[in-house]
Amino acid sequence: MGKLSRIAWLYIGAVIAAAAVAIALGPFSGIRWDQVAALGVLLVACESTATLLSSRNLAWSPNSTASLASVILLGPVGAALVGCCTLFGIRRGPSLAQRLFNTGMFALSAYLAGRAYLLVGGHVGTPTPSSFPGIIAPFACAVVVHVLVNFSLLRGVLWVTREPGTSLGRVGLDFKLLLTDMGYAAFGLLIAALWSVLGPFTPVLVIIPLLVARWAVAQFAEQQRSYEATVSALCQAVETKDFYTRGHSERVSRGSVMIAREIRMRAERVEAIRYAGMLHDVGKLGVPTSVLQKNGALTDDEYAAIQLHPMRGLDIVREIGFLDEALAGIMHHHERIDGRGYPMGLAGDEIPEFARVLAVADAFDAMTSNRSYRGARPVPEAVAELRKWAGTQFDPAFVDAFVTAIERDGWKGPEAAPAGADQAGVGDVLSAAGLPGEVLSGNGQSGTARAAGSALDDPTGPLRAIESL
Amino acid sequence: MSVATRRHEPRGFPRQVLDSGQSLLVLFAGVLLIAAVAQTAATGVRDVHAALAFGGLIAFGELLRLNLPGDREAAPIATAGALAYALLIRVGNSPVRLDPEQVIAVAAIGMIIGALPHVAVGRPTRLSAMAAQLVSVACVAAMFRPLANDSLIGSRWWSELPVMISLVILGWLVKATIVALIRTDALRARFGVMLLDEFRVQLPVGAAVGASALLIAFAAEVMGLAAVAVFTAPLLVTQVALRRYTGIRATYLQTVRALARVTEIGGYVEIGHSGRVAKLSVSIGRELGMPEPALLELEYAALMHDIGQLSLREPIPGGATVLVVRDEQRRIAEYGAEVIQQARVLDTVADIVRRQSDPCRPGDRGEEPPLSSRIIRAANAFDDLVGSSVEPSRAAAAVQRLRLDTASEYDPQVIEALSRLVSRRSVLGP
User: Fold this and answer.
1) What's the Cα-to-Cα distance from B283 to each of A259, B216, B276, rounded to whole Å?
2) In the predicted model, is pLDDT for residue A405 greater than 60?
3) In terms of CB atoms within 10 Å, which of A168, B133, B164, B206 comes out highest?
4) How crowded is residue A404: how many other Cβ atoms within 10 Å of its Cβ?
5) What is the value of ipTM here, to two decimals?
6) Which residue from B376, B390, B2, B383 is spatially nearest to B189, judged by alpha carbons?
């Protein structure tokens, strides 16, 4: 969270104070302290398995299991006391302020869930066979209240601690997470129900499947991270073929995601378009290096070889079990709205949505990076160019979305001097190995004629090329 | 198709013809099923509601079966349901008197019903996995039912739980052993290695399944049969987490496989080369008794072993790295490792790729290259010589040529393993 503003401290203080008042008002009669201790231990165990979510400041743990079990067994005040055990979670990461806030938040959520449970007619105490199935409805209410209070308080704290200028739409609190939370909450009922049979051994038995689920989620996250890193490394390998496009895939991916978010695509589709952006030019590998780096007019054959690259890309990624949409995007990212693109010459809405998004991001990055035949253009000029070709080459809606996103969030183009720093890593290795001659990096040749690069990715290139055919 | 490819096929052993060991197991399970159903039919079904509830849970779980790493079919929810049914002591306040035969019959029928939709849409049945499951449940039921029916284990949790826990562990061991035996047979690997792999992969799932089974069995005392319904929610959560994990693993492998083909599309190597080298390397690795995690890294490294060729301006004719000079080989390997290292998560793989061009004797770099590098080096040379040819004489000649280079170029034990594979014909042919 870094340095907190006064409003943030006020907010956190208010949450903690509310929890403290709720507990202080009691009543404490009828709370079994052995249960508080056992459930507190369970909660600490849950809290210690917290996994970081994609956004940096959020972690998720199955705490609601312990909190909701205590709602049934101990009532609102006892549940709030159990919630306070969040403070003792064994994990690195959260700062004191975060810990204090989390504690207050869980105590308050548990307390309100307990109040809701009583309000709908639930009975506090160890359930017996006769409590079923009557207990299920009040418990469900408690679950919903717990999850909602938790999420709203969290949204609140994210709001008061947000970086200036970012929107709250993308903090990673999605509906799926809400459902997961409710699924884990059902374990709470089981703990409460089993207490009469298994006593304090219940949490031990319950925590095993919980831990395995946590393990699987953590493994998933780890695999996902490795997956991304691997894809991106392999894309960079492909880019070594054309030194001028270093980092291009990464940036097109970023740009496509900006557009996708701006037009509010669903999360899975945003994810798919991210990969589509990274992989969109993989097919360039099938184009001979001599053609890619040619300075000068292209022959018909060479131009045909270049036009094949989206199909080649499709050949490579077809076997990846990924959204069909991403494949369509890769195949058609050089189509134009007016039907004069390649490889199929689709027009307007015939072009898959992903392809239209990729085309905008692709052209924009091509314009704002150095090419062998020209220097990088400044962002405003590239934006003007996008607008100029909107409706003929690009989908105007996506151009608008992209421009809005760039104006709000800015655009991080390639490093100012890619020829020096960027190339060093690979170049060093190769020259150390003693064979500089075959290194793949045309060292900054400057050409003026329309080169292969422009036919591949410059917005104004294909038009002229086709007109000349 | 060599044995290696089957490991990561989407589901099931694609061969419909079962190996002898598998058919024996399936036959045994079939006899068990018929005997149990006949016996249950003769004595009449006890407590029809419980039988229906648990049978339904088992069928539901079977419907939601998933693939664990290494092409292992698993149906955690069905397993938990079957075990819970076997371990049922009381439903509500009334004690449960169940014959082991009825438990087996309900579990088997549930599994079959759950498998039917899969068969209907044309997915391969996983007969041997289901049979192993049934045998393991039968073991637990046969040992626990008599104890429970005659109330020999007391009625407090501290006397019941130890017995139940040990039986759940026993059932898990039985199943892991059977599955390891099947895999040893199917993959022609070593039993010890397969058993350890099996334990490693199945431990987390087994623990979750066992604990869930105990929880359902105990919860039925308090909640009655509602326990089955209430428990489906958290089990589903675990299942969803597992499925996402296995899903991303599969995508990961597919992606590396696909992207490794960039060298083929770019004309640097012959079409199919990386795939064949990877297949062969994994077969050799398994023949040499490598455990599964190491085999996965070996497969990644083998798939990407030629990625360094992207640094060449023009492809080597035919892509045959065995034909170019040592320094060049090393440079390509070095560059490939550099590329892989950028991913930051595949450092072992990068190291394997880096050392693939080193001769196997401890040479200029001081120490021997890792076993995986030596395997890839041999597999790569073999493929460069044989290519996509399926002629046995050509393969034998290639092995002979590599053997002549042994001790200076290739690791003798790797070449011997390759030779055994070639003589078994398990590396050639479609």
Assistant:
1) 46, 42, 11
2) yes
3) B133
4) 14
5) 0.76
6) B2
d(CA B47, CA B91): 10
List C-alpha distances in Å: A353 to A238, A263, A273, A326, A334: 25, 11, 10, 10, 12
Which residues are registered as beta bridge partners of A374? A371
- Hey, are the CB atoms on A190 and B261 less than 8 Å from each other? no
Q: Report the alpha-carbon distance of residue B280 to residue B419 in Å, rounded.
A: 12
Radius of gyration of chain A (CA): 29
Q: Comparing A145-149, A283-287, B409-413, which segment has the lowest mean pLDDT?
A: A283-287
CATH of span B261-423 = 1.10.3210.10
Q: Collapsing DSSP states into helix, strand and coil, what is residue A90? A: coil
State the Cα–Cα distance between residues A121 and A130, nearest whole angstrom: 15
Q: How far apart are CA A271 and CA A54, in angstroms?
A: 12
Q: Please say whether the beta carbons of B329 and A434 come within 8 A.
A: no
Q: Which residues of A233-251 are buried (b: 16+ CB within 10 A; e: fewer)?
A: bbbbbbbbbbbbbbbbbbb
Handedness of CA A412, A414, A417, A418 (dihedral sign): positive
Q: What element of type H or E holds A51?
A: strand A51-52
Ramachandran region of residue A441, left (φ > 0), alpha (ψ -120 to 50) or beta?
A: beta
The full set of domains in chain A, from first to last, is 6-222 (1.10.1760), 240-415+442-468 (1.10.3210.10)
By C-alpha distance, which of A168, A137, A139 is closest to A151? Answer: A168
| Paired tokens of A380 | 């405003």
The tokens of A432 are what?
């150390």
pLDDT confidence tier of residue A414, bands split at 50, 70 and 90: confident
B420, HSE (Cβ side, Cα atoms, 13 Å): 13
* Residue B207 touches partner A, C-beta closer than 8 Å: yes
The strand ranges marked E within A415-460 are none
d(CA B159, CA B429): 58
Picking from A229, A230, A240, the nearest residue to B310 by CB comes out as A240
Q: What SS3 state is found at A458?
A: coil
Q: Which residue of A has its CA nearest to B242?
A: A216
The closest CB to that of A430, out of B311, B340, B342, belongs to B311
Instruction: List helix spans (H) across A199-282.
Output: 202-239, 248-262, 267-279
Instruction: Give B331-372 pLDDT, tens digit per residue.
Output: 888 888 888 887 777 788 888 888 887 776 655 556 778 889
Helix/strand/coil percentages in chain A, nearest 5: 70, 0, 30
Alpha-helical (H) ranges within B44-126 are 48-63, 76-86, 100-120
Size of interface A-B (CB pairs under 8 A): 215
Asked whether the beta carbons of A284 and A456 are under 8 A apart, the reply is yes
Separation CA B285–CA B193 (nearest Å): 11
Cα A444 vs. chain centroid, distance in angstroms? Answer: 36
Rg (CA), chain B: 26
Residue A242 contacts residue A292 (beta carbons within 8 Å): yes
Q: Which of B230, B238, B251 has the CB atom closest to A322's CB atom?
A: B251
The HSE-up count of residue B198 (CA atoms within 13 Å, CB side) is 23
Q: Measure A348 CA to nearest chain B CA, in Å.
A: 31
- Contact between A275 and A231 under an 8 Å Cβ cutoff? The reply is yes
Residues 139-168 of chain B with CB under 8 A from chain A are: 157-158, 161
Q: What is the pLDDT of residue A357?
A: 93
B314 touches chain A (CB under 8 A): yes
CA distances from B42 to B29, B183, B246 (A): 20, 37, 43
pLDDT at A24 over 80: yes
CA gap A413, B146 in Å, rounded = 73
